[in-house]
Amino acid sequence: MRNIVMRALAVLLTAVVGACAAMPASPPECAAGRIMQRHALYFGLTTSDGAIIDEARWSAFLAETVTPRFPEGFTVLEARGQWRNRETGTIIRQPSRVLIVLAADDPVTSTAVESVRTAYRERFAQQSVLRVSAPVCASF
Question: How much is the average pLDDT of 16-27?
Answer without folding.
Answer: 43
